[in-house]
Amino acid sequence: AGGLLFLGFGAWMIIETFLPKPAAASATIPGWAGKFAIRQAEIFERAAMEDYTKLAALASPEARAVLERIAEEERWHHEAMLCALASGAEHDIPIDQAMAERLPAEKDLEPFSSDAANALEHAVKMERASARFYEVLSDGCKNQRLKETFAALKVAEENHAKRIEMLKPKK
């Protein structure tokens, strides 16, 4: 019996050593990930503000007013992210693997070229991806005030998408 027990423990140790261990589903990603997420939001918001300002300059008078207003709102979002970084908010966003998988792809959040023929279409996609980005941050945030800020930004980005949709030429 002792010999069988010895062989059993030996086999168990060999299996543990050579077979890959499954990663924990809710393992927290290093603390810098929260800061990185907010820094990325700050960069995206600044770029969106700049792009909407350029696009507004090329737009019809009706579209110009809408795009200038969206550019101003993006400036406010940019300032909100700068304040979040200054206050150390990244510590209130423990990003785990499940959260990271829900974040939109970085290419979906990239700024658009204001001279592109499909700038409005790209802007709508970017706004929807931004809304999803803020939804994920809101869902995972510990700090209630920051959670509410991200939820408000999500709604604002969804509204941007709707307003830009209305500017697109009817087919």
Termini Cα gap? 81 Å
Number of helices: 7
Overall radius of gyration: 23 Å
Task: Kindly state the percentage of residues in helix.
Answer: over 70%
Model regions low in confidence, pLDDT < 50 over at least 5 residues: 24-28
Largest sheet, if any?
none
> How many β-strand stretches?
0
Q: Which H/E pattern describes the elements?
A: HHHHHHH
- Structural class call reads mainly alpha
What is the beta-strand fraction?
A: under 5%
- What's the mean pLDDT score? 81
Shape: elongated
Structure description:
The protein has 171 residues and is an all-alpha fold. It has seven helices and no strands. The protein has helices at 2-18, 32-58, 61-86, 97-102, 106-109, 119-140, 144-167. Helix 2 packs antiparallel against helix 3, helix 3 (61-86) runs antiparallel to helix 7 (144-167) and helix 6 (119-140) packs antiparallel against helix 7 (144-167). The longest helix is centred in the first third of the chain and has 27 residues, at 32-58. The chain is elongated and about 90 Å long. Residues 24-28 have low confidence and may be disordered.
